[in-house]
Every structure is written in C-alpha cells, then in structure tokens.
Amino acid sequence: MATGLEFVLGVAIGINLWFLTEYLLHRFAMHHLKGRGIMSREHLEHHVTAGWTFDRILILSWLGVAVVGAVGLPINVVLLGWPIALGMFVGWPFGYGFYEYQHAMAHLRPPRNRYQRWLRKSHFHHHFGHPNANHGVSIPLWDIVFRSRERPDVVRVPRRLAVRLGWLVDTTDAADGPSVELKAEFCDDYILVGSVGCDARQAGIDEARAFASLAPTD
C-alpha cells in the first residue's frame, strides 16, 4: 500500500516539476534570450504568426524531455527510492504531453470547458497583450508565485492574426477582400482590432516586435 501511494506521490511530483520547468523555460529560455538559440528563435517565430503546426521542433522537444527523465531516474532512485522515482519518471512526460496538447488545442480548437476558456484567454493575452506575462500555459501557479500573472477583462486580437485562430472568427469573402469578425460566443473575452491585411512592412514589424517580446500592434 505504501509503495502505491509513493508511486502516486512521485507522479504528482513529476507533473508539477514539469509545470515549473514549463514556466521557467517559457519565461527565460524562450523570451529573455530574444531569439538567441533554437528554442527561443522557434518560440518567437510562433509569436510572429500566432499559429500552430506540427514540425521537427516538437520531436526534438520530446527527445529532450525523454533525456531529462532518463538521466533523472537513477538519481531519484538513490535519493528517493524506486516507487517515487518511477512515479516521477511517469509524471514528468505526462505533464509535458498535457501541456503540448492543451497548447496545440488552444490555437486549433474552441474551448469546451471552464479550464480551456481560462487557458485560451490567459495564453492569448500573452500573445497579443503582454508577452512578458502569463508564461505558465498549463496552470497559473508559477505566474502567481513570480508575480507575472495578468488577468485582462478582454483580450485584444489583431484581425490579421485572428485568422490563424479559425475557431475564434468567422471569415467571409467580399468584393474588397476577406471580412473577419469575432464569433458572438467569444465577445465577452475577446475583441478584434486593426485590419485583415498584412503587407511586407507589417510582417517585418510583427517579427521585430515578437523578437523583442513586445505585443503586436493593432
């Protein structure tokens, strides 16, 4: 019985270690480095487009998580014993997988419950309002601890980037170009600003601001 409880405790520790790592990597390795290194560069490119696609970086990320878990296992066995160490070995990649799934779905699918509604609103404030806030995607705990949490009433989303969030908007073709309008069910949490068009100059501005960890202009 004690062994089973120790394993469960290890799983909980492993998951929450990932949540802390998620916060630290997002804040310091991705944003503070401002494009220096592959992790920061790829993440800030994600801010430029506000979209999500499966690519090779995701494979490298999983490999990194696996390596850290494998290296940590024998160390934790010595320090904490087999049950807790094995639980941490399971909980660590589970926490990462949960984060990756929820992050992808935030960009690709509408919220289906209160947690997902919170996650999208918090995360898109990070994208479009204040990139140096709300670094914890999965949970708000570490933003609260390190005082980087912000809770906006409404998130302002530039129309040219909102088109990447197909679940958020209705897009229709018109004689003078596409029209992008917010879906009625999301009006309490979001507002669209700016125009749909994005020329080379605007694209350059978006990239420069993203790599400086600044919010995009309207």
Explain what this protein looks like in three dimensions.
- The protein has 218 residues and is mainly α.
- The protein has a domain at 2-152.
- Helix content is 60%, strand content 9%.
- It contains eight helices and four strands.
- The strands form two sheets. A two-stranded parallel ribbon has the order 1-4.
- Helix 1 (2-32) packs across helix 2 (38-49) and helix 3 (56-80) packs antiparallel against helix 4.
- The longest helix has 31 residues, at 2-32.
- It is elongated and about 70 Å long.
Total number of β-strand segments?
4
How much helical structure, as a percent, in the residues?
55-70%
Uncertain runs are none
Structural class: mainly alpha
The SSE order reads HHHHHHEHEEEH
End-to-end distance? 58 Å
Radius of gyration: 19 Å
Mean pLDDT: 94
Percent range for β-strand residues: 5-15%
The largest beta-sheet arranges its strands as 1-4
Number of helices: 8
Oligomer category: single chain
Assign an overall shape: elongated
The biggest beta sheet, please?
2 strands, parallel
Keywords:
single chain, mainly alpha, two-stranded parallel sheet, 4 strands, elongated
Compact description:
The protein is mostly helical. The protein has helices at residues 2-32, 38-49, 56-80, 82-108, 114-128, 141-145, 159-162, 200-211, and strands at residues 155-158, 169-174, 177-182, 190-193.
Write the layout of secondary structure elements.
Elements: H1 2-32, H2 38-49, H3 56-80, H4 82-108, H5 114-128, H6 141-145, E1 155-158, H7 159-162, E2 169-174, E3 177-182, E4 190-193, H8 200-211
Parallel strand pairs: 1-4
Antiparallel strand pairs: 2-3
Helix pairs in contact: 1-2, 1-4, 2-8, 3-4, 4-5
